[in-house]
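Raw record, unedited: Selenocysteine-specific elongation factor
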Amino acid sequence: MNHYTVGMAGHIDHGKTTLTKALTNIDTDRLKEEIERSISIELGYAPLKLNDEMEVSLIDVPGHERFIRQMIAGVAGIDLVMLVVAADEGIMPQTREHIDILRLLGIEKGIIVVTKIENVDEEMREIVELDIREAIEGTFLEKSQLFFVDSLRSVGIEELKKGIVIELEGRTSRDASGAFRLPIDQVFTIHGQGTVVRGTVYEGIVNEGDVLDLLPKRIPVRARQLQVHHQARKSGRAGQRVAVNVGGISKDEIKRGDVLVASGHYETTHTIDVGLTTVAKLMYPLKQRGAIKLHIGTAEVYGKIVFFDRNDLAEGNETIMCQIRLDEPIVTRRGDRFILRRPTPMETIGGGTVIDPHGAKYRFGEETVQMLEQKMDATPIERLQQLLLDKKLLPIKDASKEMNMSEDEMKELVEQEEKTFQLPTGEITSEKVIQSLREAFLIELERYHNEFPFRAGVKKAELVQSYTHTYPKRLLDWLLDEGHKQGWFVIQGPFAALSTHTPHAPRQWGKRVEHVLTAIKNEGLQVTPTSDHLTAQQIPKELHEEVTHYFYQQELLYQLDEKLSIHRAPFREAVAKLREETDVVFALKEAKESTGLSRKYLVPFLEKLDKLDLTIRHDQERKWRVTEVENWLGDKS
């Protein structure tokens, strides 16, 4: 199943919402004001069923100039655009601005849809088509398919659907291998469910139960439930419209433009280096450090523009290297597209690509411009490092395809680049990826030890599983082994732990735990339930299992049954005495005479010897495993 997002753009009242309903049977105008005024104010979304191989989300973008922010947010993550033009009006000013914005956002695929054909005759259709072809000449839409439809009577709708399939069939759905990122465009509350956010997944995969970060405030939340177009799902992936029921946060703490991301994988920034492509003509020159409004993802943030080769921007249709300094933090990555507008008087300045999401302060002059151009163009090594940061782990063959190189050239590049690592499997990763994952492991282990100090460590399988949504399992397994070799952490059986960690009772319970052990030791072999001792020391009931498991793991106590446990000292003394006083084979009566235990305690005592592989039972007798018991008694640890 491939996942796509198709956006619909065009002038107000050109029939986008009616066309959406004709295609999907869903009315995306849901606000009272939208219904009363018959205009779209907010973004509308609907699932578009085309075939069994495609899952398509259709976005109805508001056309009114006042709602340009929603329009930009809607088209920022689309794979295909449908430019809607009414047959009885033709190309309008808003249509042209939408075309400009789509071009600046790097949209590459489009379809032209002429609506309201019932209002014009055949001659007018031809005039409208000529008008459209002239308007899109030289743009990415120049060779696009053109369809005439009557949305109310469903004329031309099936042909349009087939046209959409043709355009999407040659396009791979968005790569879901990176760390999860969802720019939020809607926030609401559902009674009994809590806060829900919605958006188009830009990168990665989110799973039900994942711990996420809400940026830029960096609030940890949990994805409690997921839906794709009102259908419950266990996961959502890049290219899908996903609604996430987030726990641990109220609706008032979230706004459109915030970003939901995989925990620990994204940073915020106030300063970005960009390559800005301007529109053909500006109403007024844009001065150095002039006020701007940045639209990126679903965020709209004010700031100022900094030029390095001029003091104002007047002429259009050129690409310049510059910097944007923002009043509020945003979340972005290299290669993200953006739109720049003037706050007042309102107009679109241009758009382009983020070169560096964490820009610094540079000197004014050509040297800085050249540096930014080099950043934008990037060397093969820089491109490889960025690729590995995105993909985490790649076979040489796949990396060579991504970089448009031969496998031999890629191998040579890997050998030259010291910050690239090749695993025994032949796959490659980068020093930054290893460092990031190593730090993530160390942080998670430290968190686990703080939460569960009694335990030896986290289960390796659980540690690996918690990162498989972002990192390949092969890389996780390799780093665990490598980390153990390097001494970064310790692997003991099924557990992973920090090399500095020793299971222990935390300070607030330390003395009480010692008292429990002393009390059980003083009871000798005829013990009372362990839980009674824990309760007597006022250790909370929710900690009983944790403390008891710690006793067993450290072999401070030996468990006889569900309730009873013997301290290691009297237990070992009793085993040593029983071995000394019996032959290799002994009966129940001899054991009773040696230990002085009643049947209530004697049977579980002897069964424990069997479980420890110190004895083997044959009917009513037991046989010592002589070597094993001698080794066990000789082990003082």
